[in-house]
Structure formats: C-alpha cells, structure tokens
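Sequence design from tokenized structure. All designs in this work follow the same two-part layout: the structure record, then the generated sequence. An example of the structure record is given first.
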C-alpha cells in the first residue's frame, strides 16, 4: 500500500492514483464500483449528520487498515473539521496543506483580511448579526464554515437581521458565472493547471448544490490577468502545497474570489486526462517541493455533471454506461437528495462536451424515473 485517500467521495483521487501507478487505500462515504476498481482497498466509512464523516469510525478504519506513517491525501469533506484532520495527522502524515493552514483559509474573516491585504475583491462577510446597512441591501448567503459541495448554502430572506447559526457565517451574494481555477503549488511558487466553469444542481432544499464542471475554459479577457495574479498571490502568501482550487464569481462588470479549497477536488474529472501527467503524482511531487516548468492543456474538452436522486430509490441490476462514474452497486439504497452518479462527456469544444453530457444525463434520468433537471449557473 503506497498511500491512503480520504474524501467524502474518493473516486477522482483513486482514479488519479491508479493512473499514476499507486496502490491506494480509499476511505470515503460511498465505496462505489469505480472507487473499488481503482483502489487496492476500498472501505465505506459511516456517515454522520447527513453527509459528513463519523470521525471516530474514520480513525478506527484508518488505524485498522493503514500502518502508522502511511501518507494520506485528503480530498473534499474535512475542511469543516480541522480537529479530525489533526487526529489523522497524529498517526499518518498528510501530504497536502496542514490542518492549521486549512483552518485559516476556511475562516471567512481571516480570508477576507488576506484578500484585503492582497487587493483581491472578496464579498463582505460577518460572523455576527448584520446591521441594517452591513450588506447595503444586497442579497445575503448563509454558509457553513468549511462546508463543501454547496448543499449547505442558503439565501437569507430580505431584512433578516438575525445572527448566523453556530459554525456558519454570512456573505454578501455576488452575481455572475462560477469559475474555478486549479493550481499546483510547492510552498514558494505556483502555476495554474487550468480553469473550468461550474454550475448548480439546485432544488427547493438545496438552492446552491454543486452540479458539475466543464473545461478547460478561458478566463474573461477583462479580468484574466488580475484573477490569475490574485490566485497565485494567495498560494504564495499562504505557502500552499499540492493541488488547490480557487472559486470565483465573474460577471460583465466585476470579479470576486468567493472560496479557497486547499485540497484536491472535483475538477480532477476535467484535468486528470491526457496529455497531462497524473495529477496525483504532480500533487505528491509538489508537496515535496518539485514543480514542472509548465503543463499542457487537455487534448479535448470535458464535462462532468452529478445526478442527484429526487426520490428514494434502489439501484436495479444492470450495466451502467461507460460514460458514468461513481456507479453504486445494484441493490444500493439512494436517499432522496443524495448523489446517484456522475455523467461525463468529451467534445471538440466545451459547449459540445457539456451538451453531450446533458443529453446523457437526461437519458439516464428518464431511465431511473427521475424528473428532468435544469442546471443553474
């Protein structure tokens, strides 16, 4: 066993590890067919509070299956629990950004201060009850500190001056297109791997839930230079290492950084493809200080969208199409609101790749008796 992978969904990490020739132990909440196929050992960890790790069960699984000192790579799903990250690091070194670094970058007040110092536009935030003029009558979002996947985000009713819930914060909502930059960093320098556009898969209960991504895309010409420079400055200022992503909202008049994710994420589906080398290998090398001089862009454009179940269902027997990832096994119970699978497509342009992905998604939703879905930017 070369390393352990821990994420709410470890499939993208496991696929990259297999592409790089690593034998990996995967610990996540799903242990789907694809993750099991890519990993040397695949274990499903108990859930807590809907879609979070049961920390004690995770530590028990790691202790039982991974020798002390086996390095760990973390994906999404632990940023809201730096204490759990510290428990992992006590026995198994984390190849990536330290829990203390993650805690700072997921502190909205600290990130706002850093952006102010670096002159990076960042929407106003508060941990307290807003005053009548705190957000200047703009729409306001309430977010979980360290939350991932967007399902935790809610839009506040106009005029609501109550404080945010415990471990939540308020942020002024900014309009525009959701653009994510994937970067590789080694603590002192960084380079941009590529940009992707993202969209929501919203419903009444989850108005800001992550829906998918497509790319690579070009940054808007008017803001490309300051967006790149802002992302690189944050990576350098914080001494970030490995693969990281930074999320922006961009419209015709302005751009804003809205989040920093100091770990590997969902856009591996877009960029861990030929002719790029395996990104997990690049991540490990960068954590050790080694960086390539430059990276090529993917040979094709890629799109990947998540299908969420709009009702409780049981996966029937049958064969999944080749363009589907995160495939649950036959007989698996999928709760309403939970992810069913990821649908992927490629094309000669990003628009064609996304169009193909949406056609495949619609066909699969019909097959499973799910209502048609319209993604939101």
């Amino acid at each position: 066993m070369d390393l352990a992978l821990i994420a709410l969904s470890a499939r993208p990490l496991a696929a990259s590890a297999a592409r790089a020739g690593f034998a990996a132990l995967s610990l996540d909440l799903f242990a789907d067919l694809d993750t099991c196929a890519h990993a040397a050992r695949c274990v499903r960890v108990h859930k807590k509070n809907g879609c979070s790790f049961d920390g004690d069960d995770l530590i028990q699984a790691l202790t039982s299956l991974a020798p002390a000192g086996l390095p760990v790579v973390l994906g999404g799903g632990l940023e809201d629990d730096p204490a759990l990250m510290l428990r992992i690091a006590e026995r198994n070194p984390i190849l990536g950004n330290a829990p203390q670094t993650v805690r700072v970058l997921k502190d909205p007040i600290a990130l706002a201060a850093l952006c102010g110092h670096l002159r990076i536009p960042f929407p106003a935030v508060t941990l307290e009850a807003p005053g009548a003029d705190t957000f200047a009558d703009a729409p306001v979002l309430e977010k979980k500190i360290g939350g991932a996947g967007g399902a935790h985000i809610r839009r506040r009713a106009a005029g609501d001056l109550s404080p945010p819930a415990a471990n939540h914060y308020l942020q002024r909502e900014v309009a525009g297109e959701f653009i994510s930059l994937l970067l590789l960093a080694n603590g002192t320098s960084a380079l941009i791997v590529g940009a992707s556009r993202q969209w929501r898969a919203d419903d009444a209960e989850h108005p800001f839930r992550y829906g998918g991504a497509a790319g690579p895309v070009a940054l808007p010409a008017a803001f490309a230079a300051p967006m790149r420079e802002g992302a690189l400055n944050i990576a350098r200022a914080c001494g970030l290492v490995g693969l990281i992503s930074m999320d922006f909202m961009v419209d015709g008049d302005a751009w804003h950084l809205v989040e920093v994710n100091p770990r590997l994420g969902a856009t591996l589906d877009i960029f861990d493809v030929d002719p790029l080398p395996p990104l997990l290998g690049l991540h490990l090398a960068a954590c050790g200080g080694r960086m390539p001089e430059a990276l090529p862009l993917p040979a094709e454009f890629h799109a990947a969208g998540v299908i969420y179940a709009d009702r409780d269902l049981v996966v029937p027997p049958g064969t999944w199409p080749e363009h589907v990832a995160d495939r649950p096994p036959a007989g698996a119970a999928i709760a309403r609101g939970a992810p069913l699978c990821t649908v992927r497509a490629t094309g000669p342009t990003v628009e064609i790749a996304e169009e193909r992905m949406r056609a495949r998604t619609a066909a699969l939703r019909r097959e499973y008796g799910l209502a048609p879905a319209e993604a939101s930017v």
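Residues 82 and 103 are 6 Å apart (CA to CA). We note this feature because it recurs in several other targets discussed in the main text.
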